[in-house]
Amino acid sequence: SRETFNVTSYDAVAFGITSIQAIAGLWINGFIVCVLCVAWVKKKLFNSSEKILLFLGCCRFGESCVTWVYSFLTLIYAQCFYLHPMPQMFAALLSFSNSSNTWASACLCGFYCVKIANFQHTFFIYLKGKIDRIVPWLLFGSVLVSLSMALLGYNVTDRHLKISGSTAAIILGLPSFTRDGHIFLLFLIGASISTTAFTAAIISTLLLLSSLWRHKCRMQANSMRNLNVDAHIKAIKSILFFICIYSINFSGFLLLLFYVGKKVHLRMFFMSLFQHALPVAHSLILIFSNPKLEKSLLRTLTCFKLK
């Protein structure tokens, strides 16, 4: 029928766009992971920023995989989501991947803030000296928090399905908002954890931005070389772009939570598209702001052109 054709066309287009987005995410983040792992094997050394970048690349690579598999199964074999515990399992996987991505980004922002920004506060100076020892614990803590988010996602979805008496698939593995007190509490805890990571990342980024801006103004006042000033301006632009990306990404996440379970599929699709596309753009920024990654990318592209 015409209605069936429209639904099928929408699903096919959505899956096509999601596939392109997933392939881009897999290629870009897989490239970051491969370059860093090869450098680690060759030099037997791994600094703190590379540890965070590797963790972030792995998180985003996994998120692209989970998102694509979910979209593929939804389109090709939606019946599998009527089987226990498929909805719960995907809810846990999506919660884990989203949380690990968010917390890894927050760790990267915090690290750059402590390492680059210049503040004379005693606690900040203490952190600057200890940051390399703190980074592994931050990453370990991010994994633990992400596992707790996965457990929350599983429990919330499982309880919602039991209350509703349905085993049907839920968009993005998240339950619709209900009046059940237990679900609301778990839902609130999960949203608070994600908001904490977002707040930490934004505060760290703004502190770094203010430090770079003050340093740029100082250099201009002292008539220092234009090259240094240009480098600071480039860094400031990258930070501002990251703030925009991260804010839109987090807003999309919150809107998805609000609209889940409501019949606004097109609106939800565009919000999901932005939520998963913006981290891909951020990964590209990370590549071009890291000399090692940028040189490796240019070398790889040159090899492809020669072939």
What does this structure look like?
The chain is an all-alpha fold and 307 residues long. Mean pLDDT is 78; it is low at 1-7 and 168-178. It has one domain (81-306). Helix 1 crosses helix 8 (291-306) and helix 2 (48-76) runs antiparallel to helix 3 (86-116). It has helices at 2-43, 48-76, 86-116, 122-164, 181-221, 226-259, 265-289, 291-306. It is globular.
In one word, what is the shape? Answer: globular
Q: Based on DSSP secondary structure assignment, what is the total number of beta strands?
A: 0
Helix content: over 70%
Question: Helix/strand/pairing class, anyone?
Answer: mainly alpha
Count of alpha/pi helices: 8
Distance between the termini: 48 Å
Order of helices and strands: HHHHHHHH
Total count of domains: 1
Mean pLDDT: 78
The fraction of residues assigned to DSSP E strands is: under 5%
The radius of gyration is: 21 Å
Largest sheet: none
Draw up the topology in text.
Elements: H1 2-43, H2 48-76, H3 86-116, H4 122-164, H5 181-221, H6 226-259, H7 265-289, H8 291-306
Pfam families: TAS2R (PF05296)
Membrane topology: Multi-pass membrane protein
Transmembrane segments: 12-41, 53-78, 90-114, 134-154, 183-209, 239-260
What key phrases describe this protein's structure?
globular; 8 helices; TAS2R; disordered N terminus; 307 residues; taste; mainly alpha
